[in-house]
Amino acid sequence: MKVGDQKFLRDLNKKAILRLAKYQGPLSRAEIADLTGLSSTTVSSLVNELINEGVLEEIGEGVSRGGRKPVLLRFNPDSFLVVGIEIEGDFIAASLMNLDLTIIKKSKESLLDSSEFGVIREIAALVKDLTKEISDEKILGIGIAITGLVEDGIVKRSVNLGWKNVPMEGLLRREIPDIPIYIDNIGKVGVLGEKHAGNGLRKENFIYVRVGTGISANFIFGGQLYRGSNGYAGEFGHMTLEPAGPLCHCGNRGCLEALASGRAIAERMKKIALNNKSCKIWEVVENETEITAKTVEEAARLGDETALQIYREAGYYLGIGIANLVHLYNPELIVVGGGVSRAEELLMRPLLESLQSRLLDELKNSVKVAPTILGDNENLIGAGALVLEKVLQ
Ligand SMILES: [Zn+2]
Known about the structure:
By secondary structure, this protein is of the alpha/beta class. It has 3 domains: 3-75, Orthogonal Bundle (Arc Repressor Mutant, subunit A); 81-195 and 379-392, 2-Layer Sandwich (Nucleotidyltransferase, domain 5); 199-373, Nucleotidyltransferase, domain 5, CATH 3.30.420.40. The chain is built from 14 helices and 16 strands. A 5-stranded mixed beta sheet has the order 6-5-4-7-11, sandwiched between helices. Strands 14-13-12-15-16 form a 5-stranded mixed beta sheet. Helix 10 (293-301) packs across helix 11. The chain starts with a helix and ends with a helix. Bound molecules: zinc ion (ZN).
């Protein structure tokens, strides 16, 4: 075995120990040896290294299995930090988190220049500000969640930002050369956030449906993110639900995204409200440009029948789409996130009705559908989870 191979193996074994301590700890050295199948000498030496690096700590004694009481080891979530960045169409948010993905510091700026250079400049400034009192070695990495298709650090296409083939990681590395940078699509990052810190914690098979400006579904199967052959799995928003339905920005008709996304909700309200000045939405907004999924939600809460109906229809179509997913994949859980999911029961009630009415009897009680528990921080926490995923796997 070459020296390089030995180091690789050692790193892999250290990661296996860390994963165990993080998700199943505290554990003794003997338990770690049992669970990993490594010899007790190897475990001892790796654990000592991890203690010296500060990632593991000893926290007193456990129950004896005969003989001396074993010392328990705990994963130390504060040993390193991660940075999460979220880029939407009109703002950038950044956060500093510990390894449990607890947010320590957070900031948000409106995005005045959404060109790649404007965005890179803004990210570099936010990272510099968040980490100014911290040495680079303490930061495991920067995770970036972006709307659009991402392959190997290159943003192939982002409709929201108007980008095509932007080598984002390369551009950013010139500004921030000393911290590892990981970039992925916001829906993929979202499912990792659920896996590491949300409803998906310790779940092996679940789906994260993101209902924002667009719609996506991302999958954890056997504990791993499913990416598809080119990394584009999850374009749930372009599943056809009404072949003669409204035009989608992809060029097809009746895609789920053209029927139930934040963009579709706003478009539908605009169409109706512009011909009807008595519509309650006009009590919420002053002009057409302020009509968004959020303001339609506010109008619905004021009892506006049009707004309520629009949310019922969005929920109805999402329920059909999710029923298709459940029939295909038989997941144990579906988490619904994204900005539109903050409408809670306005969306979830019609969604669940529509879903239940379509599921095979055998599948009716097999799947739990729940909104994300991470709230408005879901994308930042997901971006942090992207770093953990890269470092620990
Ligand atoms: Zn489409």
